[in-house]
Design goal:
Length: 409
């Protein structure tokens, strides 16, 4: 009954580390915006993905033995090849903006200059994982641990990659190593739970998912996996209850409806099961569309029209969490001030269409910050604040509109 899946969106890898001081001190470092170039056309593999990490040169691990010792930072910084720190700063910025291919290209350059440079391998592991290159991610994390064996706490992404390869026992072992150092990260406990579930250890998985929910009580994804685990254990009433809770937290996710459907059929409540089946099929169609859009945005995130389609998909299923995430993706699809002003106005319209007053108010405040010289934006804001009954903000927005259009004299 359990279908193979890679880790869900809530298990996205986080770098989980602070850059050592020497990496934060690079002067005149480029930004990801200034150095990133468009990805390859659809269907053509970017150059960064045709080079395997195994092909990158190696060096003496002993050189980096003191890298994470603060007392050694200045000495190590002086010994680095020119361009290493600037390249690393760019790669970090690109990764943070979802520009994974440019990040990887730069990391390859850094590692060619400085083989086995620990931060480069760590970020490379995370980047390969985000690009779904799980084998390459495992290799990159392995290279990091070869030169920084005491830094396993930073490598939970290796567990995610091992899981993605179907190496569930290895993933479990790695998560356990990380949890020996870090115990308060929900995504690590989730990864361990899913590895146990795939290995047939449902009771152990439930215990780990309980820990996830202690750390993140409103985690709909964890509730969904808990419901699926209960379904596997044939605890159908419990599975149904958890699935209904998960559906309330994540109304756009088809999985809770599927679990509820299976549970209801098992309980002999066929009429209710058929209703859940109808809901599941409808939501699954939207989920398939989302996956297709996200796959296209993975290699080239700077596609605003496609990102807007992702927002509309989330609006259509009425899932505010998905809407929030899609709007964030849209925000990353452009770089100019006018684009961000336009996106903030689009966000306001989106939240208003959902009747989400609190989120709409946040978007309106964002427009005030981003659209300082856009007269039409201030005109819309004046109307919006007036409807909300905020007379002071409405008057200020109207004043700014008149000032910008020259009608206030």
């Amino acid at each position: 009954m359990l279908r193979a899946r890679v880790l869900g969106c809530a298990a996205l890898v986080l770098l989980a580390w602070s850059l050592p001081p020497l990496l934060c001190a690079a002067s005149a470092a480029p930004t990801a915006q200034s150095g990133a170039r468009p990805g390859a056309p659809l269907g053509e593999l970017p150059a960064a993905l045709t080079r395997r990490p195994e092909d990158l040169p190696g060096a003496e691990p002993e050189r980096w033995a003191r890298f994470f010792d603060p007392a050694a930072q200045a000495e190590i910084g002086r010994s680095l090849a020119p361009g290493t720190l600037d390249g690393m700063t760019f790669a970090q910025a690109a990764y943070g903006q979802g520009l994974f291919v440019p990040a990887l290209e730069t990391l390859h350059q850094v590692l060619t200059r400085e083989p086995d440079f620990p931060p480069a391998w760590l970020v490379a592991g995370a980047t390969y994982w985000r690009l779904r290159r799980y084998g390459d991610a495992v290799h990159a994390y392995g290279r990091f641990l070869a030169v920084a064996p005491n830094q396993v706490a930073r490598t939970h992404g290796m567990g995610h990659a091992l899981y993605g390869l179907g190496r569930f026992a290895d993933a479990r072992e790695h998560y356990q190593r990380v949890l020996a150092e870090v115990t308060d990260r929900a995504e690590i406990w989730r990864g361990l739970a899913l590895a146990e579930l795939r290995l047939g250890n449902g009771e152990a998985a439930l215990g780990h998912l309980d820990r996830v929910l202690e750390l993140s009580p409103d985690d709909g994804d964890a509730l969904t996996w808990r419901a699926e685990t209960l379904l596997e254990l044939e605890r159908f009433d419990d599975a149904l209850a958890e699935a209904e809770r998960a559906a309330a937290l994540a109304p756009g996710d088809p999985r809770p409806r599927w679990i509820a459907m299976e549970s209801l059929f098992a309980l002999g409540r066929d009429d209710e099961a058929e209703q859940r089946q109808s809901d599941w099929r409808r939501l699954d169609r939207f989920a398939s569309q989302r996956r297709a859009i996200e796959a296209r945005l993975l290699l080239e995130p700077r596609q605003p029209l496609l990102a807007r389609q992702l927002v509309q998909n989330a609006v259509d299923v009425g899932d505010r969490g998905l809407v929030r995430a899609a709007l964030e993706r849209l925000r990353g699809a452009g770089t100019t001030a006018s684009f961000h002003c336009e996106t903030s106005q689009f966000a306001l319209e989106t939240w208003l269409s959902l009747g989400a007053d609190q989120e709409a108010r946040v978007a309106a405040l964002d427009i005030e910050r981003r659209c300082a010289s856009d007269a039409s934006a201030w005109q819309r804001l004046a109307l919006y604040w007036s409807v909300l009954g905020d007379a002071d903000r409405a008057a200020e927005a109207q004043r700014r509109y008149l000032q910008l259009t020259g009608k206030g004299h």
